[in-house]
Amino acid sequence: MSVVPMHPEATADPQTVRWVIPVGTLPVVGEVAEAPDELGEMLHSGDVACIEVETQAVTIRLADGRSWSGRGARVRDALSAALQHPRRWRPADVVTEDDVLRAALRDVLDGSVGDYIRSHGGEVTIVSAHDRRAEVRMAGTCSHCPAAGSTLHSRLESALRARFPDLVELRATEEPGKTARRTWLTMRRRGA
Fold it and tell me: How many domains does the chain have?
């Protein structure tokens, strides 16, 4: 088996490290009840307080009194080995395909695509995620923006498909109660 590439990212909590992995490495999302081999032993022994899986990361929180400087290399090696057995990971709750789609959409909106939208004064929220279809609500400056369709398809949809390849459709609704504003540009005739 080949080694799954991963790298650590610090979080605001010094007890927690987010390990970035390729999208789709694990078939679960959310809190983990069971992990393979030594990582699972660490979870059950109390060295690791919590393991949560995202569509492209595994977040591991050490128990209080444990430190990454003391246990980091062991946790890293245990995670690397556990990633070789994706079917042996068990979520704390039942995870449906809809849950995976919603998690992928949340990752996209919390990441660089969402940052881009927010940087322009826009806001996108999840309306629904089921049957391989997602619907979002566009608000703020995204409401009635001429470039909203481009943002939706070229940025949001492509990032979502990278995390959830089985996506059938992504559609958007605009914030209710808003009316379109039109801006007319006056063009002068050449030579006038």
Answer: 2
